[in-house]
Each structure stands twice: as C-alpha cells, then as structure tokens.
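Z., the sequence and structure:
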Amino acid sequence: MPRLITALVIFLTATVLAELPPSAYEAMQAKAPEFFEVEILRTDVKTGDAPNDKKITLTARVGKTIRTTTGISEGAVITITYTEVARPAGWVGPGRIPILKEGDTKVAFLEKGPKPNQYLPAAGAMTFERF
C-alpha cells in the first residue's frame, strides 16, 4: 500500500507540473515558416500589460538561413518580439520562451510578424532550441 501511495503522489505531481510533450514542440518546429541561426545583438525587456508580464524585444542578425518563406538572407537584422507571461505556481501548460542575452547565438524557429523585419516565436518554449 505505501508503494501505491508513493507512486500516486509522484504521478500526480508530474501531471501538475506537466509541460507540452516533445511531439508538440517538434510539430511546431516543423511547421515554422522561418528557421534561422541568429546572433542576438540587443535585448530589451519592458513591463508588460499585466503586473508580472514582460515584453521582450530582441534585435538579431541572421546567420545561416535554413528555411525561409520571407526570403530573408544571411546578415539581415531582424526584430523578434514576444511576451513572457507570469504563471502562478503549479500552472500546467507550455513552458516559457527564454529571454536571450546579447551575444547569444541560437537557432530560431519563427514566423513573420505584422511589422517590417519583425518576427514572432513559432515553437513556444523550444523556439530557440533544436529538438
């Protein structure tokens, strides 16, 4: 009986802290219209609309272009914008998109934003990591 209770507690704890399954992120990455290597030139973090939210603006230089529907080329400077949303403890759902720092070089799975040279994350928490 103690083993059953322990197993149940572990299972429930894992469920409460659940992240999206890897297959969900893999699918988002595969569908991302833009896939580059980028170098972060500047990171701006401002207060978001909600008290603990942050508006993130990354200025990045495109390195290698792996896939593009917008025709972006190596050396282009782009803006990547997104909001980091504060979640309450125990919240279940997708992870946070990391805030990259100046000088970071990462892959980027993106989609075109509404403004010129603006791009948005296309693979949630795995936007800047390859599966």
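Strands lie at 34-47, 54-67, 77-84, 105-112, 118-121. The first helix runs from residue 2 to 16.

Let me know what you think.
H.
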